[in-house]
## 1
Amino acid sequence: MYSKLLKDFREMYMAYIPLMIILSSCLGSVAAMYILMQERSSMQVIQLTVCVIICMTFNASILAQMKPKFVFNLLIASLTINALLVLLNFGYYS
């Protein structure tokens, strides 16, 4: 399944770039919002730092025109980490 997704991703790489940036940035923004809604603590700073670093790394990899496989792996990492941060911090407000 991974190889099929990667093959499709490589074929449509230029068309996926705007969608990937929007998706990663929006999910990162939601994660940052939930992190900043917490009480101030050192854990909040660490979570926010991880969120910003993974989003910036992903966006920089696109701008630096890295190989599609590397960008694809960073997209998966960015979405996974930010989704985990959202779920971790959403529990405080549900």
## 2
Amino acid sequence: MTTNNFKVKVDDTFEFDFNDTTLSEIDAVATGKNSYHALDKSKSFHSEIIDQNFTDKEYTVRVNNTDFKVHIDNALDIAIKAMGFTIGATKNVNSIKAPMPGLILDVQVQVGDTVTQDTPLLILEAMKMENLLSSPRDGVIKSITAAVGDAVDKGQLLIEFE
């Protein structure tokens, strides 16, 4: 059985690690669509999800009338950060660089192509995994410096935008 791991950051200050076991030990019941009641060491907590941004995995949670900003990373997010990726990087990116050393398996765009955010650009094989690199923004491909079969180093320029 696979264990799911989560890293939870609250108000950019406190970090907590959770897994399937720790989550199953939480004494909580749903009291509404986005509200819960929990007990911890005989203390009662009323919580409600006030705001949610699924894309950035950020939530505003009200616990006993105090609001907290909560960010949740799953096991994949944690692994990606460990490999040097940054999630939710700025949208003013003018180039794509190799996030890790690897082998270019496929280039899915050409110079002059107009792309939108999340358009697949290329596939980089690293650590026996295929990693799809997508466009972080809308734009036009200015240059492609890597070709299928190229071995690339971390930080090597792969694609530039106009």
## 3
Amino acid sequence: MTAYCLFQNLEITDMDKMQEYAITVEPITHAFKGQYVTKAGQVDVKEGDWAPTYPVIIKFPSMADAQAWYASDDYAPLKALRKSAGTFSAVFIEGNTE
């Protein structure tokens, strides 16, 4: 079952690091079968207190693929780089449509 990873960039404190992350993360994400659905698209909040800045959604074939990517040795240094560039929230959502 498809899984979606939603990243919300709450605050970017080091744009140079964030740009380095953005350039280097894509090939690793693709190696784990991830496809970007959106990267920093415009947000139009319709309900609630959402305040996403630069939202990113990545689609994986399964939750296992998403978890493997996030926990991988390949992604670990990039995860650390991203976390050193600002404050983020992330959720993984299984694409259950039943």
## 4
Amino acid sequence: MRPGPGQVLHFSEDPTITRFVPHVAATARQPQAFVWAVDHGRAPDYWFPRQCPRAMAWTRPDTTPADRERIVGAGCGERVHAIEYGWLAAMRTVRLYAYRLPAQPFRPFGAPVAHARVATVPVVPLGPPEPVGDLFELHAEAGIQLRVLTDLWPFWGAVTASTLGFSGIRLRNAVGGGLAAPSHPR
């Protein structure tokens, strides 16, 4: 489930949205009101139930072979996503939808690397939302390793201390509940 040319995606468990209006998210670190979306490369970050804590890592040109093997694993692709066992049932049963939005009103957001696209004007979807389907199958088809861990924090600590790119979303909902390292992507 990725956007086509000239599109960005917004993932939601709500299939009834007809217009996206800029707002300040409850978890926002900035005061501006935005409509949030993602591009092709960041879409997999949202193949999860909304509140599911997830730690994600991927290889970059400057990733060391040792970090790649230690965190991603030999022969395991270029990207790994991790969740906790407590979220397995939700991963299996969530009804997640993708809204296709026109890319034109959106601009990159995030530094040093953009991890989202934001718009400051209302945006109407290009059509009805599409069911995302089986989240495990989606990861498998994309060649993204999906790990299930008892506790995300040891993995997150290793990832954030490595040369891999990373992103953590909803980590406050993970076992232990507190951030031990940055959640912003790099």
